[in-house]
Design a protein that fits this description.
Its cofactor is a divalent metal cation. Belongs to the metallo-dependent hydrolases superfamily. NagA family. This is N-acetylglucosamine-6-phosphate deacetylase. The structure is a single chain. The protein is α/β, with parallel strands linked by helices and about 375 residues long. The chain has a single domain, classed as Alpha-Beta Barrel (TIM Barrel), CATH 3.20.20. The protein has nine helices and 21 strands. The strands form four sheets. Strands 1, 2, 3, 4, 5, 19, 20 and 21 form an eight-stranded mixed sheet that branches. A hairpin with a 2-residue loop joins strand 16 and strand 17 (about 285-290).
Length: about 375
Amino acid sequence: MILKNAKIVLEDEILENGYLIIHDNKIKAIGQGSIAEDGIDLKGKWILPGFIDCHVHGGYGVDFETGDQDRFQTFAKAVGQEGITKYLQASVTTDVVTMEKNFKAFGAYMSTKREGSICLGAHMEGPFIAVEKKGAHDEKLLIKPNIELTNQVIKWSNHHLKMITYAGDLQDGSFTKFLIQNKIEPSIGHTNMLASEFEKDYLLGAKHVTHLFNGMSGIEHQRPGLVVGAINHRDVLVEVISDGIHLQPEILRFIYQVKGAENICIITDAMNAKGLADGEYFLGQLPVIKTGMKVCLKSNGALAGAGATYDHNVRTMKKYTNASMNELIKMTSINIAKQLNIFDQTGSLAPNKLADLVVLDHDLNVEMTIAEGKIVYEK
């Protein structure tokens, strides 16, 4: 497959009139100028690395807990329309019996022949989180970080557990060490911890923070929280839900200014109601109401996951920060690929890397998504 007459966003430059050749599942060549061979004329549209969402529960009627036995495949085939080529599918807090059932179903899915965008594994969000910052998690089911239960989840998922969100202050560092030893990315979040309490986990190797500002202690000059800890350490990668709802424009600009494009990864945190009509749905076992892109708990109006698409969040981040296209791909693809130790395979456009890419129009709407050389969405 040849894509030509495109603006191609590489790591450190933009080819204004370039071509990209795909052979099997990899990028064979990228070049500047015209090419004689037949191919898809993109008429000046953008080619970017495929988006990687490390925190998405689901959408289009399904998520980790919602839907039939084919729900993981259903999501994989649908999410390409957002420009996502790879993702971690996130769970929410449930009782242990339900957790076992869901993680076993997920493990079985990961072991089958799959279509669509490619799931890299699970991001377990809850139950190891703080009651004070529970967000849309069932308070009755929350527990302290537990190595024994996590070992069970690893087995249930067929060793496809890749990231866990947990309140670092609810453990003494042993859980953080356990995750790192088991090659699971430790992500600190849903916590009321002090910035000073973040230090022990940071020094042990925890360098990822779940949806910065949302579900955590913030910037209070007499009680600096996790937000301050995450900002003070330049090398901590922070997830940002840039839908314009979870964070106000001024906060998006603030994060961009203080963390820099090199230390942000855009996420959706989207749940099953994304892409569906407004109405009542469930996040895990909790009733929620979707209005536009906003999803809230029916009980108290608290934000409950999200209803925005990844490409919407990309456009919103660009709008409010005025980030360059080279900075944008750091926040959508490069940074998280490095964090997940897959940057040698994907996350940027280069010969011999996997052909994971998204074609965007001039307004950054998705025109085509290619995951490992296969077109998984075409407008």
